[in-house]
Amino acid sequence: MYGFFFVKNKEELTMAWLYLVIAGIFEMVWATFMKLSNGFTHIGWTIATLIGMVASFGFLAKATAKLPMSLAYPIWTGIGAVGTVLIGVLLFGDRLKPATWIFVILLFIGIIGIKMTASEGEIGHLLIL
Questions:
Q1: What span, in angstroms and rounded, lies between the C-alpha atoms of 61 and 119?
Q2: Helices (H) and strands (E) in the chain — how many of each?
């Protein structure tokens, strides 16, 4: 039925959330590799970027087969955004103003909030972990 997501068991739902987290991690990976590609001038990092993109979208597609897009997409982008900020700071020496850190923390809280406040009515007949 269009607009509803039916899950046979809790394991399917758990796997969907796991796919979503993996998709978010691959989003961080490809963004990092893109930086390392130096504007796609280094072929190895460029190929790694493309592989990371395909993996990220592939796992996102697997997740959205069981999770609604309205939850999966913002969580996926949020994982990628927060993770990429942390990678930029830790690996590339990016410096952020204290006010920027506040918004990164708010983004993280928003990701957790979206996951925690999803009601059964918003996601059809899914169980919430």
A1: 22
A2: 4, 0
Name the one residue in this structure whose structure tokens are 């952020």: 96
61-92 pLDDT, tens digit per residue, is: 999 998 888 899 999 999 999 999 999 999 99
The whole-chain average pLDDT of the chain stands at: 88
In residues, how long is the chain?
Answer: 129
Among 61, 82, 74, 71, which Cα is nearest to 128's? 71
CB atoms within 10 A of CB 40: 12
96: enclosing H helix or E strand? none
In 3D space, the residue among 45, 63, 56 whose CA is nearest the CA of residue 7 turns out to be: 63
